[in-house]
Amino acid sequence: MRDVIDMWRNTRMVVLTAMSASLYAAILIPFKVLPIIPGVTEFRPANAVPVICSFLFGPAGAWGAAIGNIIGDFFGGLGPGDLFGFFGNFLYGFVPYRVWTALMGDRDPVPRSPVQWIVFVVVIALASGACALTIGWGINLLGFVPFSVLGNIIFLNDFLVAAVLTPILLGVIYPRVKSAKLRYTDVLAVRQRRRRVTRVLGLLLVVGAITGGMILGNLLSTGRLVPPFLPVAQESSTHAAAVGLGLAPAMALLLLGLFLL
Length: 261
What we know:
Elements (H helix, E strand, L loop, with lengths): L2 H4 L4 H18 L6 E3 L3 E2 L5 H10 L1 H16 L7 H23 L9 H28 L5 H33 L4 H4 L8 H26 L18 H7 L1 H13 L1
C-alpha cells in the first residue's frame, strides 16, 4: 500500500486526485435531495465515479473518492460518522485497481471475455462490500443506524450503480486516458507484483473478511448473534457494542489482505 503515500510526491497524481474528488462531489451534491436514510445516505448515481477513477488513476482515485465524499457531506451536514464515510469511500476507490492488478496483471480493465466479465463484477462486489462493511460498522458502532439496514443499503447502492454504469463509461473513457498516458501506471513507477502465494493469501483474506463481515454484521446488529464476551442484555436496540467489537477482527483481516495484494 506504499503507493497511496508515494503518489503525493507526484504533481500529476495530486492533480488527478483533485479532479477525481471534484467530479465525485459534483455528482453527489445534487442528489442530496433524494435521501434513503436522511442525514446518512442517499441515492448515489455518482457511485460509478470512484470505481472508474480507481481503474484509471489508482491511488489518486482512492484519495479522490474519500475527499470527494467529504466535500459532498458538507452539503448534507457533517457528523462523527463522516470519518467512517471517508475511510469507506477510500476503500471503495482503492479495492478495484488493487484487486484487478493482483488477479489480471497489466490487462486493461475493460471486460471483453467471459472471464474478464466475471472478475470485473467480483471486483466491483468486493469494493462495494469493503465500503459497506466499513461505514456500516462505524455508524452502528456510534449507535446511529443498525448495520443490517445501512450496510445492506450501501452495498446495493454501490454495487448496482457501479455494475451498470462502470463498464459503459470505462469503455469510452479508458482508451482516451491510455492514449494520453494519464493512467497511474504511466505516471507512477509500477511496483513489482507480489509473489503468487502472497497475492492468493491476500485475496482470500479480503474475500473472507468482506463476506464474513457482512454476514456477521447482519447477525450482530439484529441480536441474532451475541458475542460470548458480552451480556445477553444489550445496551441499545442497535447492539452497538456487539457490532463494534464483533466486526473489529473482520476489519483487521480486510486491511491485512489488502496489504498483501
